[in-house]
TrEMBL record:
Its EC number is 5.1.1.7. This is Diaminopimelate epimerase. The active site is at residues 71, 221. It comes from Eubacterium limosum. It holds the Pfam family DAP_epimerase. InterPro entries: DAP_epimerase_AS, DAP_epimerase_DapF. Substrate binds at residues 11, 62, 72-73, 161, 194, 212-213, 222-223. The gene is dapF. One of its GO terms (molecular function) is diaminopimelate epimerase activity. Catalyzes the stereoinversion of LL-2,6-diaminopimelate (L,L-DAP) to meso-diaminopimelate (meso-DAP), a precursor of L-lysine and an essential component of the bacterial peptidoglycan. It catalyses: (2S,6S)-2,6-diaminopimelate = meso-2,6-diaminopimelate. Homodimer. Keywords: Amino-acid biosynthesis, Cytoplasm, Isomerase, Lysine biosynthesis. HAMAP family: DAP_epimerase.
Length: 292
């Protein structure tokens, strides 16, 4: 199977052309392809598909093979792929269909293989029912929650997928690997949750990292950054244009009412062919074949 490996701010994806709708990938096969060291290795897998309502469709899967409604860094990579392959005319803005709705995309510039892409990410929602998060309250913004002997301040938001933003004093020393999975699988989140840890540096600058649902710690999360900036803005901690410094790169987030815009990079890393019959992956392959 031919694929293109791409990354946006260090969040990496296997991108596969499915414009003829001929490819259906069972979850165990996606997991095998994304598995670091044994597979191609990626945080997620994107099938580039035709759309009836937009210029192109993003069919997104997490590293563990689970479906996600939306991926911010992934949509920039898909946009670059579609532009480079001539699937869309990138000289003007275009639209991408996702499970979270229509996303507006504009390729701002391409320089030395890196495209800078501005994405209209749609509306943020703070409604607990929409996120979803189980609570008596209609929104959770600036709430306190206990973790072991600590009291953490957090807020929740949806960018089509669920997010919890936790305020931390120092993102580099915070035990993300421990706290991330605890909240990802917390009973308050019926669909699990992406957990971002944010340090406010100034009203227009934050440092953050995300523990992603279905993946683990990643170098950047686009929807997580949008949700976190929106939560921090509602808590009065940042303005409406914020520079986010993530482990894998930087994103700029702008808020216009409830609409969120994200600007960041997208790059092709390499192209290749995935050999399906690798001995170490026999079990995953058999499981995948059983599902076909
Ligand atoms: N990396 C992404 C988010 C991918 C989906 C997420 N793990 C989920 O399950 O919702 C991004 O850049 O937004």
């Amino acid at each position: 199977m031919n694929f293109t490996k791409m990354q946006g701010a260090g969040n990496d994806f296997i991108v596969i052309d499915n414009m003829d709708n001929s490819i259906e990938l069972p979850a165990p096969l996606i997991e095998a392809m994304c598995r670091p060291h044994f597979g191609i290795g990626a945080d997620g897998l994107i099938l580039v598909e035709p759309s009836e309502s937009c210029d192109v469709r993003m069919n997104y899967y997490n590293q563990d093979g689970s479906i996600a409604e939306m991926c911010g860094n992934g949509v920039r990579c898909l946009a670059k792929y579609a532009a480079d392959a001539g699937i869309v005319d990138a000289s003007k803005p275009f639209e991408v269909e996702t499970r979270a709705g229509k996303i507006g995309v504009q390729v701002l510039e391409s320089y030395r293989g890196v495209s800078t892409i501005r994405v209209s990410m749609g509306s943020v929602s703070f409604e607990t029912q929409e996120i979803p998060v189980i609570s008596d309250k209609t929104t959770l913004l600036g709430e306190k929650i206990a973790y072991k002997d600590q009291e953490l301040i957090y807020g929740c938001a949806s960018m089509g997928n669920p997010h919890m933003a936790v305020l931390v004093e120092n993102v580099d020393s915070f035990p993300i690997e421990e706290v991330g999975p605890y909240f990802e699988n917390h009973p308050m989140f019926p669909n699990k949750c992406n957990i971002s840890f944010a340090e406010v540096i100034s009203p227009d600058s934050i440092a953050m990292d995300t523990w992603e649902r279905g993946v683990g710690r990643t170098l950047a999360c686009g929807t997580g950054t949008c949700a976190t900036v929106a939560v921090l803005h509602r808590m009065g901690l940042v303005g409406n244009k914020v520079h986010a410094c993530l482990s894998g790169g930087d994103l700029v987030i702008e808020l216009d009412g409830k609409t969120v815009f994200m600007t960041g990079p997208a790059k092709v890393v390499f192209t290749g062919t995935y050999e399906m019959q690798v001995p170490n992956e026999e079990e995953a392959l058999f499981a995948a074949l059983r599902e076909l």
